[in-house]
Amino acid sequence: MDAPRRVLLSERLLVEWVAQAKVGDPFPEPWSNARNPSESIIRTLVQLGVIAHPAPDASIASIAHDASPAARAWLREHPA
């Protein structure tokens, strides 16, 4: 059985940001420096198991709407 992947501090901070982000909040670093910050954040959330891989036609707004409560749940399940 494989050991769970260690979550980096930057990844945990991203999940915390997603859990409390509001519309219009600037993306956190280093994701803000990505060519496509939204895509990079979504990919990281999927890799961490915070959210399931979204449908190809899902809007960023709907993904963000679902990601916020999912991030709060993930944080409860993965206390620091």
Written overview of the protein:
This protein is mainly α and 80 residues long. It is built from three helices and no strands. Helix 1 (9-20) packs across helix 3 (60-77). The protein is globular and about 30 Å long. 12% of the residues are buried.
Would you tell me the structural class of the helices and strands? mainly alpha
User: Span from first to last CA?
Assistant: 24 Å
Element string (H = helix, E = strand):
HHH
What percent of residues are in strands? Answer: under 5%
Radius of gyration: 12 Å
Task: Give the assembly state of these chains.
Answer: single chain
The stretches of 5 or more residues where confidence is low (pLDDT under 50) are none
> Can you count the beta strands?
0
Which term fits the overall shape? globular
Mean pLDDT: 93
The largest sheet, given as strand count, sense and whether it forms a barrel, is: none
Number of discrete helical segments: 3
Q: What is the percent of helical residues?
A: 40-55%
What are the SSEs and their pairings?
Blueprint: H1 9-20, H2 37-48, H3 60-77
Short key terms for the protein model shown above:
80 residues, mainly alpha, 52% helix, 0% strand, globular
Short account of what is shown:
This protein has helices spanning 9-20, 37-48, 60-77. With 80 residues, the chain is mainly α. The longest helix is centred in the C-terminal third of the chain and has 18 residues, at 60-77.
